């Protein structure tokens, strides 16, 4: 969320897209850290699957927004 806010605050479509790219990369980091939390027994398998799915959804929505903005900018 903070990457999106920071990119939006730059008032440049190119910069906004750059920060959206950071956002989708951060989703992959979150997914990796979820496995760490699971391996350390901080979350159970159902929590892992639910949070992993949400992170995947956020990544996919972010990638769709990037694609839209790149198409709009051309």
Describe the structure.
This protein is about 85% helix and about 0% strand. The two termini are about 25 Å apart. The protein has one domain (about 1-74): 23S rRNA-intervening sequence (de novo design (two linked rop proteins), Up-down Bundle). It has helices spanning about 1-10, 15-40, 45-74. It is mostly helical. Helix 1 (about 1-10) packs antiparallel against helix 2 and helix 2 runs antiparallel to helix 3 (about 45-74).
Q: What is the domain total for the residues?
A: 1
Global outline: elongated
CATH top level is Mainly Alpha
Share of residues in strands = under 5%
Number of strands: 0
Largest sheet: none
Order of helices and strands: HHH
Class derived from helix and strand content? mainly alpha
Percent range for helical residues?
over 70%
């Amino acid at each position: 969320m903070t990457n999106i806010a920071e990119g939006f605050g730059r008032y440049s479509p190119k910069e906004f897209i750059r920060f959206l790219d950071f956002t989708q990369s951060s989703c992959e980091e979150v997914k990796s850290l979820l496995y760490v939390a699971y391996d350390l027994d901080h979350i159970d398998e159902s929590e892992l699957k639910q949070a992993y799915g949400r992170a995947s959804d956020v990544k996919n929505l972010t990638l769709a927004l990037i694609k839209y903005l790149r198409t709009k900018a051309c």
